[in-house]
Amino acid sequence: MPHEKIIRHGAGAAMLQDLPKMQQMAAEIVKAVNLPVTAKTRLGWTETNKPIMEAAERLQDAGIAALAIHGRTRDQLYTGQADWTLIGEVKNNPKIHIPIIGNGDITNAQKAKYFFEQTGVDALMIGRGAIGRPWLFKEVKYHLETGELLPPPNVAQVVEILREQIRLNLEWKDNEHTGILMLRRHFAKYFPGLPNFRELKIKLLRGDTSDEVNCILDEIVDNFGSYQLDYSISNIL
Ligand SMILES: Cc1cc2nc3c(=O)[nH]c(=O)nc-3n(C[C@H](O)[C@H](O)[C@H](O)COP(=O)(O)O)c2cc1C
Q1: What separation in Å is there between the alpha carbon of 224 and the centre of ligand 1?
Q2: Is 233 a member of any domain?
């Protein structure tokens, strides 16, 4: 997400307005470290200014090892659809030899396969689609490898995954309150299409401790354990 605070200083997405500076900065970083340096950028600044091709060539010249491209402009923020055509054009530019990673709007395995095959990118990057669906990566991998679709988990299975995410997050944060606060935005995304979810959602969002949240998850499993969630509903933010 392009942050105003960062853009005001000419950094982040603002560098798309000054490609020589972007190149110079990337080259300095590459020179200063002994690790491969990768970059990630949007297509450009506005609908009429999408210098991604020149940006990709310049970043490659600067020694960048791989480039991830989010198929939107800065002005779009998260509106509209990601433009994978331009990502494909960069990938298929004969001058480009570094790996190109495509990013934007991958919310299910079929879309991943379609974008992957349509553009020939070297890798896919998934953001919002994995919120409330962290097994999406497994679904995508399976579909790319076999052409088949994994069956979606039922509510009881989804709750087990969410419990694991809570456990790992609390372990990582080492502070229960901060850990739970961080997770709140994820809770509702786990249950697309659950009937009468509003009340349970409010309870989940009010839970202050993992015990409280786990009690509400018990209630969800007791009432809807075998229910099949509706993954045709977009879970994007
Ligand atoms: C909560 C959140 C945090 C993000 N943080 C970053 C970040 O730190 N750096 C970055 O390059 N992109 C960041 N992004 C953008 C994503 O990496 C990605 O480019 C964007 O969400 C589009 O991909 P998607 O449609 O799969 O979500 C963030 C996105 C979200 C929703």
Answers
A1: 32
A2: no
